[in-house]
Amino acid sequence: MVARTGLYAVLAANVAVVGFFFTQAGFASNTLIVLGRLTGLYGALLMAFQLLLVARLPWLDRRIGMDRLTSWHRWTGFGILWTLLSHAVFITFGYAESSSLDPVNQLVDLAETVEGVLRAVVALGIILVVGAVSGRFARRRLAYETWHFIHLYTYVAVVLAFTHQVAAGTTFTSSSVAKTYWYGVWGVALASVFVGRLVLPLWRNWRHQLRVTAVVPEADNVVSIHMTGKDLDRMPAQAGQFFLWRFLTRDRWWQANPFSLSAAPDGRTLRLTAKAAGDGSAALRHVKVGTRVFAEGPYGAFTAMHRTRPESLLIAGGVGVTPIRALLEELHGHAVVIYRVATDRDAVLYDELRDLAHAKGAELYLVTGPVSPDKLAPEELVKLVPDVADRDVFLCGPPPMMNAVLGSLRELGVPKQQIHFERFSLAG
């Protein structure tokens, strides 16, 4: 909550500062041009904020969570799209109003005669393409790697837009203080991305040098990968978190897959357990012992750090049991574990979970059967856990199940701050 409030406060403060510098620079006589300059400034501010959201800074990620940051990133992206599109329209029509040119020729004239405008046009074109492929219709039809590659061009748009603003923006050309402030905002944003997305992952992998030590089939379509490395006791990983894993083989080094830790980090080894849901995860069964691993992370706020009550309820669905199993190992206090699967055969890691629950004094319920009727409906859930409203609830599973359980928890009056879940979605 503190991190979220702080992030909102930083954004609000910068909105006010940008508004102040905009006012100090004076207004144009044409209302459309005034609106165009203002939307351009706030669109660029949103771009800087967007960089902070995607920087994957550990302090923010552990407190806010990758899910929420990804959701904010998505909506901020559409905010950038509409503010910068409005900027281009307002500016073009504003200047066309005071000239004899139609809007199209006016835009061409601005691109040819005003420094930085052509760069801004190219940047807007890139943002329009990225916005189009980020829509749900297109996103569902693109492989993650393709979507991610196209998304990388956003950084080109960021550089082009920034150089356009400092070259042509009257707010910054008329005030050295405003220009210094703008360089500071963008310097912090770009440095955050550089450190969080490049320096930190490279440094951690150089330090820990992960290698595969065992590949263990858990079921027909589920496999566990065990890894070891150097100084793993100094890796800041917690139960419930996930990494982006790259197995450095000739045919897989370019693929990054998000998988949770399926056992609490012990300072010596790491383990992931994955279900064959696509080509990438299916190929894990064939990874060789000794393969080098490049791991980005740890990520996520699905940890014991956010507990608010001494007792807990852990609900897992399918292979969503992996972070739940790791959390049970780390949590203290009485815990109830509910594992929802279609059949007994689908209960991956159940033997481990049963032994761990026995050792921790936890209650374990294996709930099997078809989706309908809902065996985790409010009346069923409260039969298993009568004091559910007095517990922290950790939830992980397929999206339909998670949505249904979240509805049940709300109906049972479980306070929002006691419900913890993460969908492990990197593309919104």
Please outline what is shown here:
It is built from 16 helices and eleven strands. By secondary structure, the protein is α/β, with parallel strands linked by helices.
Provide a descriptive summary of the structure in words.
The protein has 428 residues and is an alpha/beta fold. The protein has helices at residues 2-24, 31-54, 58-64, 66-97, 103-113, 117-134, 136-139, 144-151, 153-168, 170-173, 176-208, 279-282, 321-330, 350-360, 378-384, 399-411, and strands at residues 210-219, 222-228, 242-247, 257-260, 269-275, 292-299, 312-317, 335-341, 363-368, 392-396, 419-421. α2 runs parallel beside α11 (176-208) and α4 crosses α5 (103-113). The protein has a 6-stranded antiparallel sheet. It has a 5-stranded parallel sheet with strand order 9-8-7-10-11, with helices on both faces. The mean pLDDT is 89. It folds into 3 domains: 1-205; 209-299, Elongation Factor Tu (Ef-tu), domain 3 (Beta Barrel); 312-422, Rossmann fold (3-Layer(aba) Sandwich), CATH 3.40.50.80. Helices cover 53% and strands 16% of the residues.
